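tl;dr need the bound structure. longer version: we got a ligand (calcium ion) that a collaborator sent over and nobodys looked at where it sits. i said id run it. heres the input, straight from their email, havent touched it
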Amino acid sequence: MAADPLLRRRELLALLGISAAAAAASGGANLPAAQALSRTAARRPPSPSSLPFKPLPGPLPLPVAGLSGAEQQRLFSAITLDDRLVVPDGYRAELVAVWGEPVAAGRFGYNNDYLALRELAGGLALLTVNFEYISPRPWLEGFKEATGEELPARAVIQALLERGGAVDVPSLDPTDPLARQCRQLAAAALRDLGIGVIALRCDGEGSWRREPGRYDRRIDGLSGLEDPAALLRVSGPAAAVFRARERLGYDDGLGDRVIGTFSNCAGGVTPWGTVLSAEENFQDQVAEAVFADGSASPPAQQPFQFGEQRVRGLGNPFALAGNKYGWMVELDPQRPEQPAVKHSWLGRFRHEAVAVQAVAGQPLVVYSGCDRMGGHLYRFVSAGRISDPADPANSRLLQDGRLEAARFAADGSGQWLPLTPSTAVDPLLPSHFEGHGVPQACRLPHSDRRRAGAETFSSDAQVADYRRRFPTLGDLYPGEGEQRMGAILIDAHLAATAAGATPSARPEDTDLDPLNGDLLIAFTAGGANADGRADPAIFRGPAGEASWPHGWIMRLSDGGPAAGSRFRWRMAATGGTPWQGGAGFTNPDNLAFDRAGNLWMVTDHSGRGREILQFGNNGCWLLPRSGPAAGEALLFATGPMECELCGPCFDAAETSLFLAVQHPGEANGTRAGAAREGHGYRLVNRDGLPFDQLRWVPLGSNWPSGVPGRAPRPAVVAIRRLDGAPLLAPGRPRPGEQ
Ligand code: FEO
Ligand code: CA
Ligand code: CA
Ligand code: CA
């Protein structure tokens, strides 16, 4: 269909809480594009001078630029992507920290993601940084320069190829040199993951500089392996599972202590000053499947693999227990001596991020999504109540409560399902998906309860038989007391699926609207993969598509913390091209509100397939809350080649936006010379007329050095205005040198 600026603006106004009545009047939680268009006349975009900055043009023609169809066609028929971090006129980006720099006894890790800035009295600020995963090609190409060390990567890759690509390292003869080499390689990778804290100070010019000192800290993927004092702690019922004397599965011998943290994706801050760091794709490095008592599969189930395209099983050489990863980790950046804690009441799943609601007199409520296709949205509600949201003792509230998962209804309502032993088994049936023309089997905890993991059920009759055998979660997880609750929390994804939680569209960030307390959720992509499928009754494209790869931002108004309470939801923005009825971006990932309630959003697309690649490099968008541009999506920054931008956060004065540049050069590694490729796209101008674009795309990256042939490195940047004013202060920033 043709360009749909009206729908886009209307959705974005809804996103920002401005047009709730209009959205409700549409009669459903999704807003059909044609319906919206037919109701209201076309609208002119805001005048360019009324925007808070001059948005980057990006690779697709967007209505907000105010160009005519003919002008769009002329300006967008040939473009070149940049291997740079591009910001608008009048702003500049400065490096704050780069992979490989020393931090405490370790180094600034790889693939920085979530960022949290806490400013202390006296001008010092503590930046907490997540380090998520290894992109093998640019990691290997840059490792020597970043760390000064050599790795036996060639030898290991060759030896693994000769053994079928994977090896169970603990089962190798200890004298086999491959065992030592695999441990060395896996240790180098795990030392680059986890969490870091670095101290910064803002100089007189507005630049943030590192000031290493007593707060600098690294918790990495192997913390505690050699020093028991550095082991992580566990709170809540899973600790009882880890301490159990007998178990169906693997015992790492560490009781309720844990070696390290990895796959640290996004996170959140608490009002009492601690940081929550989300362990996301842990299943790549350790075995995910657990037994009915919550115990782990043997480490051999996720053997060590290492190649230029794929790194798996980093936990295998160290025999890590898979049930100890996939948690939410709390640390206090101001107390480097205090161990980090994995809070098991928040559940074990592929935690992307977290949002914390702490209101005096109320229970603590913590929201988090599981970023897998068909993953669920969860909330934890504490047993105790908050008295002072800033009280550091509030961490104790994370030690007792209940975990609930969201069930969405197509009419815009929803309900929280408590995950307890008495919860009924009542999953979404295969016929539900068949009714939408997208067959999908149901994956439930294995019906042979002596076996770990899931089993697939493809008919309603099979599910009905399963429900007769296992009427409640307590029938699936047959232990006693804390151990039984711990087993449910450890297997939270399958337990929530069994309870009937909605399989959703890869929930990424969760953030609370500072002006009204609503929860905003970035669902990055709908559709299906080997993990599952998003519910096509809820996650539909602008024209009702049952699979939609460009994602949504949902606004959820929660109905209070009571067990099993209800909520309202609506899709506030839909990704996609303007001519598909989308907002101009694809795959929303991290979100950050500024104090005025403007929403900042970064994208993370996979870089695969023309439908996605047409959106160009991942970027950072501003969705203004008020003013002439309210309801528009303005492109504020684009990253260098093959990266994503993560972790948007601000200083207290909102003069600096911190961003993590993750995995530059992930696909093609180091850019050699001026290597580039020409791509052709068919785009559509604002008059609905198709036209062709020739696009030059650099191959690989040299960011941040910009030196041809030099390996790219992940790094954190701070973006500020050249005139020193707050990022969105009235009056356009003066154009100037960047
Ligand atoms: Fe680590 Fe879901 O992004
Ligand atoms: Ca993310
Ligand atoms: Ca966030
Ligand atoms: Ca990501």
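gonna send this back to them w/ a short note. The pocket of MU-OXO-diiron (ligand 1) is lined by residues 132, 265, 280, 352, 371, 508 (CB under 6 Å).
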